[in-house]
Amino acid sequence: xxxxxxxxxxxxxxxxxxxxxxxxxxxxxxxxxxxxxxxxxxxxxxxxxxxxxxxxxxxxxxxxxxxxxxxxxxxxxxxxxxxxxxxxxxxxxxxxxxxxxxxxxxxxxxxxxxxxxxxxxxxxxxxxxxxxxxxxxxxxxxxxxxxxxxxxxxxxxxxxxxxxx
Length: 165
Description:
This protein is mainly β. It has a single domain (3-162), classed as Domain of unknown function DUF4426 (Immunoglobulin-like, Sandwich), CATH 2.60.40.3340. The chain is built from 2 helices and 12 strands. It has helices spanning 3-18, 65-71; strands at 26-27, 31-33, 43-48, 51-59, 79-88, 95-96, 99-106, 112-115, 118-122, 125-133, 138-148, 153-162. Strands 1, 3, 4, 5, 6, 9 and 10 form a 7-stranded mixed β-sheet that branches. A 5-stranded mixed β-sheet has the order 2-12-11-7-8, with no helix packed on it. Strand 9 (118-122) and strand 10 (125-133) form a beta hairpin.
């Protein structure tokens, strides 16, 4: 994994741990899922062969100001960031894989909103980010479809609880 991915992923994982959500899950199949409920998943991860796909969701108000600036985001408790990374190779030396990613967020009322994810490059690292608005408190379920370079497809889903801060 690229060093910048490690720091961003660790930051999002630590913030999720502070919110009482469990650690990331891993699934060796073509899709990963985190089920909703108290302390719903903040992160999801799946590994398919030598490809690792990770997704994290966090309120932008919980981002470090430097990271928010890097991504061009306003820090706001009612805005949620979805971050997806796709890497190939061993974690310590993984190479980012260009991918096409589509995502939706569904709230507790069943309102479904597509997220416009865009690519953010920093050196050799590639992050795919998108935001959605929410009314707090809420639980958002993210459905993520990934098409990797070469055409291989994967899907992930995860849920996350969000509260006023």
